[in-house]
Amino acid sequence: MKIVVCIKQVPDTGTRIHLKGNENIDESSIEWIINPYDEFALEEALRIKEKKQNSEVVVLSMGPSRVEKALRTALAMGADRALLIETAEKISDPLLISQALGKVIKEEKTSDLILTGKAGIDENNSAIGAMLAEQLNLAHVGFVRKLTETEEGKWLCERQMEAGSTEQITLSLPALITAEKGLNEPRYPSLPNIMKAKQKELKKINFSSLNIPKDLTSLKFTSYQIPNTNIEPYMISGSPEEQAKELIRLLKENSCL
Amino acid sequence: MSIKVLVSVDFLDNQAKNSSLDLISFAFKQNWSVIALCLGANKESLETVKKAGAEKIFFHTKKNSNPQILTEFLSSLIKEQKPNLVLASSLQHNLEVFPRVAFRLKKPFLSDSLNVKKTETKWLVKKSLFAGKCQAIVELNLEDSPVILMRPHQVESYETHNVTESAIVEQLNWYFEEKDNYKLSQIKQNQLNQRPDLTEAQIIISGGRGMQGPENFKLLEELANCLGSHAAIGASRAVTDAGWCPHSMQVGQTGKTVSPQLYIACGISGAIQHLAGMSSSRTIVSINKDPSAPLFQKSHYGLVGDLFEIIPCLIKELNQKTAELS
Ligand SMILES: Cc1cc2nc3c(=O)[nH]c(=O)nc-3n(C[C@H](O)[C@H](O)[C@H](O)COP(=O)(O)OP(=O)(O)OC[C@H]3O[C@@H](n4cnc5c(N)ncnc54)[C@H](O)[C@@H]3O)c2cc1C
């Protein structure tokens, strides 16, 4: 079985974001990690590989050269080889990103399963998985938190919907699945595997060589702003009874209740 | 130039969701003409859609759950209607279908958006990045006709408008043929959770490690009950990691991003990843025994004290108020 996992490099969740003027994000102090949801996707791929003989896990990412580090981590976790679509600068248009990823996946020989995270924690668009599925003409299920192979060789996807209901969907491969937290607990790469990963294949593909029309859409991030969430808190003191009474009164007065 | 917007309306138990009606009403107030797409609706349920400001309604009593199938139909409708903008709520089902539609039609796509504005030549979309740590304005040419999914509760709550001409209603005769490679086999309703989803709730009461154990979440349930059917329960990651609550209840950068009218944090310290998911809430209340807990700096009202003493008092106070009214 051949599995392609699409991963994105994103700022660590603990990073504070700083701006350069109001037109750019200052990347100098950012600590980069693999998008946590993509890590669940990768871990799931590795677990399938461990169960099935002759499986291959290919990790694919796109972005500036810093992204190589994320791919090395993925290789150290156990992926067999990596592909990097290298771009001069960061590209944020999901339509462009998915076209490039899709083109490279098509150039790979037939893949059975494409896995990726449900969303990037940076832009939170949830676009790439579904767009890739459309491009590759595949069925897809998003937000999967449990994946099991059935006796008939199909794949049972379980997910939870917003209203609290659980859905089960049976998929036949080839297909695309996006991972939600809860799917698994990603492994940490061991030291020997980190060493081994340095020898594994990491192929770079130049974005411009893919001939994706860059003016497909006009989407452009034009200005950034750090919202000021620091508030002067109004501290309510007194006994618990007094605190409760005063809070309810204030909430009512400000029509919060 | 008159602007035409197609709003895809979500239905739950034969009722249009408020988040969808908010979008219709929002578009109506901008003087855009609204085409509402209502799948899984019955004819009676279209009244609220009309009143929110839809000029034209396409409806179908069924909705197919396979994104691949729906994409087919939605794309052809959009091609035929040529709206300048497609709007829907950023909810899971929509997040599966609309990126596919956008890809097929080669239209730009953004989800989890906070606002959309129109200038002479551009669409300006406000996006929250890194779960709210930063915001950006995304510019798009007007003629790009983007597909934008909006985070619930970001535009004003809908009003019923005096629509002079009655909306044109057209029933779609789409026939959804199931595919062999995708089969929705089971939907289990969660009996326990009769509460609204976190992303749509107007009031959220969240518990952190300070709750000390799963059994104490009863206390938050009780408080939520006093606040009515719009209140939901959330949790910090410390709580979901400990298995006290399911992950679906986690608020934060690796959980849900929420922006209710009222967020009450009980025993939550205020780690950056938690703040990322809730700091856009309209009013924030913190209850914490540690006066130096960072969350106080992001709260409108702070109560220093033991939550096990304060919450029962809140419940008592609210129950008394209801008793006085009846
Ligand atoms: C990659 C990554 C992603 C993360 N994503 C998220 C996320 O999405 N959401 C999230 O929430 N966290 C997330 N975290 C975890 C985050 O860093 C914190 O560890 C977590 O939010 C802490 O939860 P807490 O506030 O409940 O617990 P603590 O920090 O332990 O705080 C407990 C608080 O309860 C108070 N308290 C204790 N007893 C009482 C009492 N009787 N009465 C009143 N107050 C009391 C204490 O004073 C304290 O302030 C993430 C971390 C990482 C590394």
What key phrases describe this protein's structure?
heterodimer; A: 257 residues; alpha/beta; Rossmann fold; 9-stranded mixed β-sheet; two-stranded antiparallel sheet; 15 strands; B: 326 residues; 2 domains; 5-stranded parallel β-sheet; 8 helices; elongated; binds flavin-adenine dinucleotide
What does this structure look like?
The complex is a heterodimer of chains A (257) and B (326). With 257 residues, chain A is α/β, with parallel strands linked by helices. Chain A has a single domain, classed as HUPs (Rossmann fold). Chain A has six helices and 15 strands. In chain A, strands 11-10-9-12-8-1-6-7-13 form a nine-stranded mixed sheet, sandwiched between helices. A two-stranded antiparallel sheet of chain A has the order 2-5. A two-stranded antiparallel sheet of chain A has the order 3-4. In chain A, a hairpin with a 3-residue loop joins strand 3 (18-20) and strand 4. Chain B has 326 residues and is α/β, with parallel strands linked by helices. Chain B is built from eight helices and 17 strands. Chain B has helices at residues 18-29, 47-52, 67-81, 92-105, 217-227, 237-241, 272-278, 307-325, and strands spanning 4-9, 11-12, 15-16, 33-39, 54-60, 85-89, 109-118, 122-129, 134-141, 147-150, 168-171, 182-188, 203-207, 231-235, 262-266, 283-288, 301-304. In chain B, helix 3 crosses helix 4. The longest helix of chain B has 19 residues, at 307-325. Chain B is elongated. The interface between A and B is large, with 84 and 105 residues. Strand 11 (166-171) of chain A pairs antiparallel with strand 12 of chain B, so a sheet runs across the interface. Bound molecules: flavin-adenine dinucleotide (FAD). Flavin-adenine dinucleotide is lined by residues 208-210, 236-239, 250-255, 267-269, 271, 273-274, 277, 287-290, 293, 306-308 of chain B.
